[in-house]
Amino acid sequence: MIAISNGMIEAVCNPLTATLYPDRKAGMLNRMHMWFPGGIVLGGLGCWALDQVHADWRAKMIMVLIPALAYGVIFLREKFPPTRPPPPARRCPTPSRPSPPRRFCGCSWASWRSP
User: Fold this and answer.
1) pLDDT of 4-47, one tens digit each?
2) Counting C-beta atoms within 10 Å of the first and last residue's C-beta, which end of the chain has fewer, N or C?
């Protein structure tokens, strides 16, 4: 479950961060990823502290749910930017006679046809 949620966060947050900061993609992605281990450490310390006071398992679940609900409220009020359109497809030149391609241009052999 944790792996699925981590993958979903990566799939959504990376393109969103790159869209929000087109001139500073690398720096902002580094800042975002810098806090993933920090969250793991802080969450582990919080669970350890709840274990020390012999808290019930429900207290640990509340410790996870409160930030999740807070983020949900924050995100519901935000307006996200439109995504960028994909780049146009590259087309390979069609040779005048059927011959093997002399250089790679990103196309498969099946796309080379005679006129």
Assistant:
1) 877 887 888 888 888 888 899 999 999 888 887 888 888 889 88
2) N
Residue 59 lies in a domain: yes
Q: Which of 12, 46, 5 is nearest to 32 (CA)?
A: 12
Residue 47: count other Cβ atoms within 10 Å of its Cβ.
15
Q: How far apart are CA 74 and CA 84, in angstroms?
A: 23
What is the span of the domain harbouring residue 36? Answer: 2-77
Question: What letter represents residue 90's amino acid?
Answer: R
**86 domain residue, yes or no:** no
Per-residue model confidence (pLDDT) at position 114 = 47
Please indicate, yes or no, if residue 62 is contained in any of the structural domains.
yes
Q: CA-CA distance, 89 to 86, in Å (whole number)?
A: 9
Which of 74, 77, 78, 114 lies closest to 97 in space, CA to CA?
Answer: 114
Q: Tally the domains of the chain.
A: 1
Number of other CB atoms surrounding residue 31 within 10 Å: 12
